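idk why but the lab printer keeps eating my pages so im just putting this in chat instead. protein + magnesium ion:
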Amino acid sequence: MVFNITCIPGDGIGPEIVKQAKLVLDRVAEKYGHTFNYKDILMGGASIDVHGIPLTDEAIADAKAADAVLMGSIGGDTNTSPWYKLEPSKRPEAGLLKIRKELGLFANLRPALLYKELADACVLKKETSDQGFDLIIVRELTGGLYFGKRETVTENGIRKATDTLTYDENEIRRVAIKAFDIASKRRKKVTSVDKANVLDSSRLWRQVVNEVSKDYPDITLEHMLVDNCAMQLVKDPAQFDVVLTENMFGDILSDEASMITGSIGMLASASLNETKFGLYEPSHGSAPDIAGKDIANPIATILSAAMMLRFSLDLSKEADDIEAAVKKALADGYRTGDIYTEGMKKCSCSEMGRIITENI
Ligand code: IPM
Ligand code: MG
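predcted complex ->
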């Protein structure tokens, strides 16, 4: 079959890791007789440098026209990069928020699991990591504080800034349904995270999630306050299966969840709309400090490509093949610097890409 994939190499390590993911996809295409047509678009700093804005209408149109979008990472060093001297709506991150909104990518899936082979890299106590964990955060991605009305004003000589957190019931319902659907294919538990002891938006969130849960009698639903969830993630991550939460809480908790795996360079993510269409990207950022050195870990991007095959292109066998190839590379002892432990075989970004490609 023929598929059109729009790629966003982006900034920092983005171009090097996307390059490796394309090599892996090309090997899959060769093995299974598919054709992947790639079209690269600019986003983030790379787009600012050429067009003066982080995302053009043409780039959005190219993304919409594809079967799926594969992204590396965007953004630079916020302290030193000239991109951060621009007004906020022209900075790299604005491009990412815009593409999420324009493509209607309201459900952000961020799995965090502990790889057996990498248990030594886990930052948790050994008795906790010994239990293992495999959870997925389903983060609402196109509402809440990120997209609410905001302003900065000066009143009577006093500077004042406002951000607003709004959700309507439809926005909550559609992402809740995604979370319950995902849980029904996993261990059948949804933990909905909110701050219902303080926020109105959280109280509505809880009501709507309760309503949705009535259609899923075999799924256990629990509600958890976000501060408690932050604590439980380091205390007992094995209790979680699907964690459902709003945009800002999901941003914070997903960084925490990926960090406790000890291998943020391994974690993929998917951002989905109501159809099968999605944007796939590693959970980590653009790591400008190591860009261009061929030492980044390409695995999260390669696993994002596997998620893309599974969710958007209906190629689950091919996706399984990529995941198995990654596991084999780890089992054979290959490690990029970020996941290296003594006695293992240290390899570069491109070597890791090649080894995984050869395992397919
Ligand atoms: C993420 C990132 C983005 C977010 C930034 C870069 C705008 O942190 O994807 O988690 O906050 O959503
Ligand atoms: Mg984040």
